[in-house]
Amino acid sequence: MPDRPKERPNGDRRPGASPGLPDDQRAAFRAEREARHAAREAKRREAQRLRRAAMLRRLPKIVVPLLIVGGAVFTGLHLSSGNGDPTSPTTVAQAEAGEPEFEDDGQTVANGPITAPDSAALLDLKLDGTTDAFSISFDKPPRSGLLFDLDDGRVLWRKDPTRVLPIASVTKMMTAMVVVNELKEGAKIKITNEALRYTGSGVGVLPKGKKVGLSAMLHGLLLASGNDAAIALAIAASGSQKAFIRDMNLRAQSMGLTCTHYTSPSGIVDKGNHSCAVDLAVQAKALLANPRLATIVGRKNATLPFPIKGGKLFLYNHNPLLREDFPGVIGVKTGYTDAAGKTFVAAVRHKGHRYGLVLLHSPDIGKQSKQLFERAYEADRGA
Hints:
Blueprint: H1 23-58, E1 67-69, E2 72-74, E3 92-93, E4 144-149, E5 155-159, E6 165-166, H2 172-182, E7 188-190, H3 193-196, E8 211-213, H4 214-222, H5 227-238, H6 241-254, E9 274-275, H7 277-288, H8 291-297, E10 301-305, E11 312-316, H9 320-323, E12 329-337, E13 341-350, E14 353-362, H10 365-382
Antiparallel strand pairs: 1-2, 3-11, 4-5, 4-14, 6-9, 7-8, 10-11, 12-13, 13-14
Helix pairs in contact: 2-5, 2-7, 4-5, 5-6
């Protein structure tokens, strides 16, 4: 009987090994397997490169140089229970609601690719080597905050502005920017079963299987903070929530947002969905540089054509400064989850200046934002 090849202890567990084969054949199998693996890896990397290149082509052409290292994109944009507002009034009603202050036919403003910003549209926060214009004491301060000039980047007040925290529905600022960069004017958004399986805050009356105008959906996203709208928009823009989240993170990388990462289009998922006040300040200016989105976030309420009984959708903004008629408010977004607490990115116009504010995990976003803006006005008067 011919001698059998010696077996290794517990058998030969090496991938591609075949008991009884001569060593030279084993080596050939191994080389072939490694070549296949290398080819697959090269194909995967090329596909990843092409996806990233396609995404970057769709982004605004930033006027500062981009540095691409190891697949990440950096720029010098700045120095380095539900997720709505639990105190907000009812956000949606049908035709029996009171008189709204705006009616939109969904076609009045183009929403194609975002116009490439000029240098004035880029926020360069002056964090290093500067002191705050004023100080303020709160009984229960926010965990993080930043008050800044939206146009020249001056920092007037800060509290741990680079601290990374969950951000809840403030996430929807990035969602809106990616959506308007992907979907053209006149786009219709199909309401899928997936969108109707949302949790947290929602528009609440999205009609299953029907198509809704993009304008109405963006209002539902940014005014009512609809998680259902976020899901529907994500699927329409990128084909799936997973692909859209990837696009959100690519957009964040291209903007140089080093604190920021997304795990949902709505912000309802706290784990891995985070940012910091500095990054959110950059996002606020970018959103307000888009006329369509700036118009939406500056509205106290809106009435829109909608395929439901009565034919109209009434939406009300969660922004406490707009609800309380604080002078000069121009946006932008609130949020809430148990982990994130109350989050708020706000913007106002006052005597020729545009001021921005970020509050993360604040006990009272309305009261604290008003106090901070008023102190900023006093500081600028005395300067």
